UniProtKB/TrEMBL annotation, chains A, B, C, D:
Pathway: Metabolic intermediate biosynthesis; chorismate biosynthesis; chorismate from D-erythrose 4-phosphate and phosphoenolpyruvate: step 7/7. It catalyses: 5-O-(1-carboxyvinyl)-3-phosphoshikimate = chorismate + phosphate. It comes from the Bacteria. NADP(+) binds at R48, R54. One of its GO terms (cellular component) is cytosol. This is Chorismate synthase. NCBIfam families: aroC, PRK05382.1.
Length: 374, 374, 374, 374
């Protein structure tokens, strides 16, 4: 599939520019009969919505979602449900500030997609970044809200684990803490430190990078497939497709390079329910591209926003010399709002693989395995 | 596309198990008229071939490739060329040692795909790892040899930059050095140190991880596309699909998380040929998912082989307790032979995006850009 | 691609139900820089719009299209153009009559998709046929209006060539006539006869089938590809996907079965412009799945609408016995409005193949062919 | 998917030229645990094999298939089974007669793909038709042999129902007869008449067209999906992709155009097993793109082979005037051997849709339908 679609059986196609009339997505392949309301999707969108603290862009977008198709309820039905047909979701843009864009119309913000879009397409909607704006991720979060319903029992959560050079103390990880601070931070002490640090960044008109960690629990074993359908390969592609992401890890990730085989092996012992118990999860829940039943753990690095107040050397569309600085409303750390986006992408990939597994193999396999075929 | 195919216009489908009769691939969508011989493909395969030093598995496989279709030459033609039809490549397995596999038939190597394949499919070809064996990567290298010919002027090279805890000195990087040592190491001093270190690992029956870096030069600007067709997203997916890979980075990668916007911006100045010159390449040649014309730089982390001599706790297929150790021929550092594999994957993704760009946009754009459409 | 998307580089995803808030599509992969306005799309939609004569459904839908994304114009540009990003089009439903659907809620119109949707999904939006309504084809026509712009010089036209048992006189074919009667009929005499015939059908509450012919001129040679990417195979799939279509032909079609090789061969002679001239076009412009440069000719058969006034034997959802008849607004010959839909599908398939050919091969080949590669 | 692959979850990629070393396919996505031997595949290939009567080409190809991957059996297993990994099949070409091809190297057989391949690719393997040869269909038949095993209880059979102007008497249809004559003809009298007729065609060096009918019984209801994933749309595409096919029908097909809604409706009554019984099958087992549980009935028209002894006007590659006639071994009616090919394509499409349905919906639905979701 090319361009603006991802997934195979659970397929998401997104559209929309930052300052166009609307953005949205079409979710195709969602199983029928899942209860689904606009309010549930809205709840996820609200977690990503800008302007909720001083640490994100002050653009005021309600991000109100409308469902245009794919759900149905009549007077005899207890709930609105999906029908198996494509679910179209639309979010209108309402706070596009009319302003003079002549400054960025013909010059390129260093580190931004401005240049690349122009060199590829020869024309671009430069207002607010156009298609390359992080506003597009609202459509992903909306799709993710549907994806979360596809795999029974699956829970996908995310957290910010590093801002600039400041990482959390993993021993202090508390999922409850994530919703108590404006950073999705699972470590209360780190959150306090980050608030001070990010105030400095924000006031100086600078920006900074971050690292996000996503954990999916309740993932059935057996999802994924050799060789290019590997679960971790598709997770990596999905997370790298988020704006500003420059690196992706599964489980130990880059740290695995420094380990020996003895250290890296996740040992197993017979478990209570007849299924094996893993004694560690360095693999991040994926072996050979296939889920093991352990939590799936992925991390991704988000680079600092390229929209900063300090002038940087650049060129114009006509190859002239210029210096560029960006005023206006921007996230000092775009990694913060990437947390619900990362959750959405992981949920979509897992929903897709769940349906693909059910298609090829029929069902999640029971344990212990019988000797088949003989 | 699902399972065992990757790419959209330049499409590669691989097949084969470690101890089956043969493995190979079908390359579909290769442009017609490219000169191509089996010898050229063989040359790439020989770089990945096992048994070339004491630091890789001692399995003796000639990895001799045959072209079954998709090329043609008659008596009036100066060279054998591609015809635009699918190119099927087959590599026979010749050194599958017949032995008793009863030990691993019903128990799982910790950290290996054994468990995951069984829980997914209920049956697996356990001989030599079956489909999950790194032997599959020979097919990727063969496909990559064709991909290298698709983008005019493109050169894709790779190097090992870390083994276990020992990274190279990047200041000492010398591409010439890569072919002079058994590690694809661009730093002669590091290579010497690695030889000692890896001898220790090898003799103890252990294994260790590594980091590989791939650099593609001569990549035209404009390749890639929003949003799920991003060049970096597809590179990440392709590299993460290589056996044992646990992390992928583009450009600065995870280090970008600790940078400010000022530090991360790749400044630009008008260049000689009418096109802009970048003053740095923290982006790794990709902005907004689209190539900038700078070298594309990707790194990936390879975990240590799970086949080690030290017993590890595990379970049997019947959920019984067991300890597993692996005798036999294995790579102490599977990351070494991953270098040509990584090159091949990067070449395939770039070839695919080159054709997709040519399809959607028509041609690589000239610089400076004209004001279009008005 | 599955479900609700078609095309590979020029990709169309449609959504929407007959009585939901809206229907529409996302066109992904359209080349940048094509002039495009909502008015141009509207002009095509108006050709398909219901209620324009007494021979189509009296549902009053303006079918007003809005472009939500993928186009741009600023004050320096002479026209609004495509940007290469996805083009989302939305058409609101405004004339869904609120009525009691309890009759068809739990029983199935024979010959209609009611039964099949229920047995597949277990739930369906039965109002007005839901997703299976021919209203979905408005989205196709809108996408087709964009597709028509992709291939330079291509013109796609259609005509109705048979209603019920009454075929046109092919010798009387006049393209000018097509827009002069309410049937898209190229034969004035036949149109007059059809008006009488169809009045009878309409007044009796019956319906009747039809045959549509689509002709695409200016199709460059070389579009299409072996084996499942054959141009005629994808045309057949695209046309058969239109509501109520039961047969598809290319060129001579089923009549070719009765011909000998001598009769069927389209002989060739050297032409004026250096390219060969075909002396006939029994092939319908496609040989070996690849366009020859001759007009591409396709025909498809449309069955009679299943919504009729005469009661037919059926069952209820609970497997009870019932008889079904359909009151309300319906097309007595749904084949009439299928003409612009067929044109749209042919235009989309040709646009897609044009981009795919440009991607794989680079450009349409000049003639006479040089001896390549030596 | 493009070019040489078809299917989505059950995916077939074919390769190979008529006079290259081998042809074959990779079947990806086949469920694990299906008993499968090379002998079973061979049995299907033998039905399509040339040279079995005087009415097919006298090329002597054993069409011996080898399985290179994707199956496994050990000493404890009662049968060789599929493992869920890609199944590669190879058939070597052994009877490529070495001869002088200079006649067709630079001139085009009217009605053949020679011209189209040259104009598309600029180079072609002209020996025996290269990639456009009907030999490619051997790979399809091999894949179909696997597809037949995927849907429990499904039986796919085909028959030749017309040769030239001579159709069978449908009242005389006897499936047993199909294997008793060299035409796959279900009507003994017609078979006798055809033998005489085709002897005349054959001796005069001419060729003739045919119509093939495929019937799939035991197809569960619910397979297929709106809108471009319609079962009949994908059947049409698959059948039109077979060499020389120019038309495809489902159920009544083109005859439906002449029917009224009353005539065309397949009435239903409550059936014995709780499921409805259809009183007719004009729909050919598909409504709204979804299978109804009735037999799926498809027909396709095959044009006469373009290789004939009578000279036809043509051009050379250099646009010179020439006349072309074809000596050598060819099928006087290529439609005969298209019967097992059509069966294979139908089996593959149904297998794919079965897996896709299982993926999206979970399972074939029980009857009578419960009121879901409340």
């Amino acid at each position: 599939m090319s361009h603006n679609t991802f997934g195979h059986l659970f397929r998401v196609t997104t559209f929309g520019e930052s300052h166009g009339p609307a953005l949205g997505c079409v979710v195709d392949g969602c199983p029928p009969g899942l209860a689904l309301t606009a309010e549930e999707i809205q709840a996820e969108l609200d977690r990503r919505r800008p302007g909720q603290s001083r640490f994100t862009t002050q653009r005021r977008e309600p991000d109100a979602v409308k469902i245009l198709s794919g759900v149905f309820q009549d007077e005899r039905m207890a709930a609105q449900v999906t029908t198996g047909t494509p679910i179209a979701l639309v979010i209108e843009n309402v706070d596009q500030r009319s302003k003079d864009y002549s400054e960025i119309r013909d010059s390129y913000r260093p580190g931004h997609a401005d240049f690349a879009y122009d060199v590829k397409y020869g024309v671009r909607d430069y207002r607010g970044g156009g298609r390359s704006s992080a506003r597009e991720t609202a459509a992903r979060v909306a799709a993710g809200a549907i994806a979360r319903k596809v795999v029974p029992g699956m829970v996908v959560r995310g957290a910010l684990v590093q801002i600039g050079p400041h990482a959390i103390d993993r021993a202090a990880w508390d999922w409850e803490e994530v919703s108590r601070n404006p950073f999705f931070c699972p470590d209360a002490k780190a959150a306090a430190l980050w608030a001070d640090y990010l105030d400095g960044i924000r006031k100086s008109g600078s920006s900074v990078g971050a690292v996000v960690e996503i954990v999916a629990e309740g993932v059935p074993p057996g999802l994924g497939a050799p060789i290019y359908g590997k679960l971790d390969a598709e997770l990596a592609g999905a997370l790298m497709s988020i704006n500003a992401v420059k690196g992706v890890e599964i489980g130990e990730g880059f740290a695995a390079a420094a380990l020996t085989g003895e250290e890296n092996a996740d040992e197993m012992r017979p478990g209570n329910a007849g299924a094996p118990t893993f004694l560690s999860n360095r693999a991040g829940g994926v072996l050979g591209g296939i889920s093991t039943g352990q939590p799936v753990v992925a991390r991704f690095a988000v680079k600092p926003t390229s929209s900063i107040l300090t002038p940087r050397a650049s060129v114009t569309r006509q190859n002239g010399e210029t210096d560029v600085l960006t005023k206006g409303r921007h996230d000092p750390c775009v990694g913060i709002r990437a947390v619900p986006v990362g959750e959405a992408m992981v949920a979509c990939v897992l929903a897709d693989h769940y349906l693909r597994h059910r298609g090829q193999v029929g069902a999640v396999r029971d344990w212990p395995l019988e000797r088949p075929f003989g």
